[in-house]
Amino acid sequence: MGFVQCAQSISKDLASSTAIKSTTEDTEKSKSIWSLDSPLEHLFENNKKWVRESVEKDPEVFTRLKDAQQPKYLYIGCSDSRVPAQNMLGLQAGELFVIRNVANLCINSDFSLLSVLLFSIEVLEVTDVIVCGHYGCGGVNAAMKNKDHGLLEHWLHHIRNVQRLHKSELVQIPDESQRFKRLVELNVQESCLNLFSNPIVQKKQATASQPRIHGWVYDIATGYVKDLKIDFKTEIKKYRDIYRLYDFPGGGAGPGMTGAMNVNMISQKADEAAEQLIGAAGDVEQKGFWGRIFR
Fold first, then answer.
1. Distance (Å, rounded) from C-alpha 217 to C-alpha 59?
2. Which DSSP state fits 266?
3. Active-site residue numbers?
4. Would you state the pLDDT for residue 196?
5. Which of 71, 170, 210, 243 would be a feasible disulfide site paired with 97, CB 3.0-4.6 Å?
6. Taking the CA atoms of the chain, what radius of gyration do you get in angstroms?
């Protein structure tokens, strides 16, 4: 056999071997998808252990939870697996209503968020809404790069807008890691402001003086949660003529609002509830967040 014939023979053998290997791998992958043998049996064992421990601590826990839930808090956080929302706050099942997404964004066109807001605020009547970011957030970090992230870019665009709004502050931070941390905080702040502008939130605040909104950041390196203590009153005053949709206890129609807009946006029931709140409130603190701002 000549050199050329030998090379051709080896090439055919390699091609055949590669095809067999590829077919075998495809078969194994197919088995792993459709196999009834669960590779996650350890998770079921963990579940059984969790049930035993839960019942030992509280024998009626599951009997109680099956009938209803009464959480006081709505938690809006990042999907990052290193942020254990319920555990890090020391809460039990039924005490925290949760929605998570990449970089804990509150986007008022996100129907998943809107459905959670409506249910938690109108049905569960949570008293507090917590937006919690975390240092080292991959979503925020990606938005700091001048790189197209494909489909994800449509989501990250909202974080890029946060950078634009706060560019004058961010460019003054020379250290990139500190600038990263500050953007995480500002992203939480803007998500909180988006909630204040949301009609579901505003309506409830106008009629029931709740929910309160909080901006927090979780530090994965320490396990501690930080309250950003955002001055919402000052921030909201900047844009009140744009985003205010309701008459609030303690405040009039406000600049930029017409009588027709108020009639269309505020139901008679809301007006009556607001009047009752004003009459019952003995101090400014009970008159609603927006009411204190727009007095």
1. 34
2. S
3. 78, 80, 82, 134, 137
4. 94
5. 71
6. 27
Q: Angle at the Cα of 12 (from 7 to 14), degrees rounded to 5?
A: 95
**Residue 187, Cα to own-chain centre: how many angstroms?**
11
pLDDT mean values, one per 10 residues, the chain (295 residues): 51 54 59 75 95 95 93 98 96 96 96 97 97 98 96 96 97 97 98 96 93 97 97 88 81 34 38 43 41 43
Burial label for 132, CB within 10 Å (0-12, 13-18, 19+), is buried
pTM: 0.76
Residue 211 preceded by cis peptide, ω within 30: yes
Helix (H) or strand (E) holding 78: strand 73-78
The structure tokens listed for 21 are: 């290997």
Query: What's the rounded Cα separation, in Å, for the pair 65 and 52?
Result: 16
* Residue 253 three-state SS: coil
How far apart CA 85 and CA 98 sit, in angstroms, is 8
Q: What is the per-residue burial (b if ≥16 Cβ within 10 Å, else e) of 118-130? A: eebbeebebeebb
* pLDDT score, position 33: 73
Could you give the residue ranges of the DSSP H alpha helices within the chain?
3-34, 41-57, 61-65, 85-88, 111-118, 138-143, 153-165, 167-170, 176-197, 199-208, 232-237, 240-243, 259-265, 268-280, 289-293
Q: Name the burial class of residue 100, with classes exposed (0-12), middle (13-18) and buried (19+) by CB atoms within 10 angstroms of its CB.
A: middle
Dihedral, CA atoms, 273, 124, 74, 162, nearest 10 degrees? Answer: -50
Residue with tokens 């449509």: 154
The rounded distance, in Å, linking the Cα atoms of 62 and 54 is 9
Q: From 96, 126, 254, 110, select the one nearest 201 (Cα to Cα).
A: 126
Q: How far apart are CA 39 and CA 126, in angstroms?
A: 39
